[in-house]
Amino acid sequence: MKKEYKYTINGNKYEVAIGDVVENMVTVNVNGEEYKVEMEPEPEVEKVVVKPVVAKPTAAPSEAPSGRANSNNALKAPLPGVITEIRVNVGDEVQAGDVVLVLEAMKMANNIEAEKSGKITAVCVQPGQSVMEDDALVVIE
């Protein structure tokens, strides 16, 4: 399978055709001239198995005293991911912009900040829990 590209570098035009890679060698044709190119091997990536931390099932996530969190005041997940850290507890006072939890999505840690000032009345998730976009995370009233 040959891949063909056209490049302009410093005003010079190059037509480049790249042939199949066999082991670590590839044939590259630049403006009609053929080159054998030896590619460096890709670095070995150490595979790390990460197991999510699962809280002991001693209690469900904290909810409002009525048993149902008021989802109208809930801070919701902006994207799907896994909760890696919760930095608040029920009863904590937070200011708009305070980081309340960390959501890992697409191999990136995302600080989830309070959208308004108030009191945490419910924590709807726990570390290691997977959430979908728009799932309630914490309730701030």
UniProtKB/TrEMBL annotation:
<dbReference type="InterPro" id="IPR050709">
    <property type="entry name" value="Biotin_Carboxyl_Carrier/Decarb"/>
</dbReference>
<keyword id="KW-0092">Biotin</keyword>
<feature type="domain" description="Lipoyl-binding">
    <location>
        <begin position="66"/>
        <end position="141"/>
    </location>
</feature>
<dbReference type="InterPro" id="IPR001882">
    <property type="entry name" value="Biotin_BS"/>
</dbReference>
<dbReference type="InterPro" id="IPR011053">
    <property type="entry name" value="Single_hybrid_motif"/>
</dbReference>
<dbReference type="InterPro" id="IPR000089">
    <property type="entry name" value="Biotin_lipoyl"/>
</dbReference>
<dbReference type="Pfam" id="PF00364">
    <property type="entry name" value="Biotin_lipoyl"/>
</dbReference>
<protein>
    <submittedName>
        <fullName>Biotin/lipoyl-binding protein</fullName>
    </submittedName>
</protein>
